[in-house]
Amino acid sequence: MHIIVCIKQVPGTAQVEIDEKTGVLKRDGVASKMNPFDLFAIESAMRLKTLYGGTVSVLTMGPPQAEKVVREAFMMGADHGYILSDRKFGGADVLATSYTLAQGIRKIGSFDLILCGKQTTDGDTAQVGAELAEFLSIPHITGVTKFLNFIDGKQLDLEADIPLYSLSVRIQLPCLVTVEKGIFEPRLPSFRKKLATADRPVTYFSLKDLEDTDETHYGLNGSPTQVKRIFPPEKISVNEHWEGSGDELAERLHSLLRDKKFLCEVR
Asked: DSSP code of 195?
């Protein structure tokens, strides 16, 4: 089984500047880390590899410093690492990002399963996994909380959370799965693996390496959505002190939440 895990390097702090002209994050010189949700995808891949054999590859898109998270994945047990890195990929929205990743996966070659984290902490869209599957024309399931069974090397039985329900589903391979936080406890990077993989090569792909080299399909040029305005949330420092019985305070709190539209009546 060949499992490809999509990972991303994200800012390690919320104090990130925004380019006012493009509306994208200024990542240069900012402390970064592995997207926390991707750790659960890597752990899922390693457990499936332990049970059923095969290899695990990780793929990311970003500047050369994104190699740091690929090396971290090596320390968790990944076998191969790939980076899509080209200035023409910069500023991509979820659609252009998904398309670029799909082109990278086609360049890597055959696979059985693609794993993604639920979302990233810098974008929080939770859309890339599903859009990537659509570009690859493969089935996908999101919100997976449990791997139940692997059948004849061709199908996976999974459990997924959807609003208000838990869903059991059987999906045909090759497919894409996004996993929820908490599906497994991610292992810590191994110092022994760090030493063993220090010289392991990481493969870089630029635009010219891909099947589709049309610049208008990538980065800002290939992004149909644009950020028009970004601003910090309003800080409200007004405090109120309420006194009264439990019933009185509960009723007052209920009225406040209802008036501010945090609560609505469900019929």
From this structure: H
Which residue is listed with tokens 């590899």? 49
Closest-CA residue to 56 (of 119, 135, 1): 1
Residue 67 included in any domain: yes
Strands (DSSP E) along 111-191, which ranges? 113-117, 140-151, 155-162, 165-172, 175-179
Strand ranges in 7-162 using DSSP code E only, listed in sequence order? 9-11, 32-34, 55-61, 80-84, 113-117, 140-151, 155-162
Contact criterion met (CB below 8 Å) for 182 and 118: no
| Residues in CB range of 90: below 8 A, 6 or more apart | 24, 219, 220
Strands 155-162 and 55-61: unpaired
In eight-state DSSP terms, residue 24 is -
pTM over 0.85: no
Candidates 159, 127, 155, 154; CA nearest to 143 is: 159
Asked if the structure places residue 262 within a domain, the reply is no
Model confidence at 20, pLDDT cuts 50, 70, 90, reads low
Closest among 235, 226, 259 to 94, alpha carbons compared: 226
Say whether 250 sits in a helix, a strand or coil: helix
Query: Which domain, by its residues, includes 155?
Result: 2-222
Does pLDDT of 222 surpass 70? yes
Dihedral sign, Cα of residue 104, residue 108, residue 109, residue 112:
negative
Residue pair 8/132 in contact by the 8 Å Cβ criterion: no
Mean pLDDT (the chain) is: 89
Q: What is the CATH number of the domain that holds 165?
A: 3.40.50.620
Contact 100, 92 (CB under 8 A): yes
- CA 226, chain centre distance (Å): 20
Q: Is residue 118 part of a domain?
A: yes
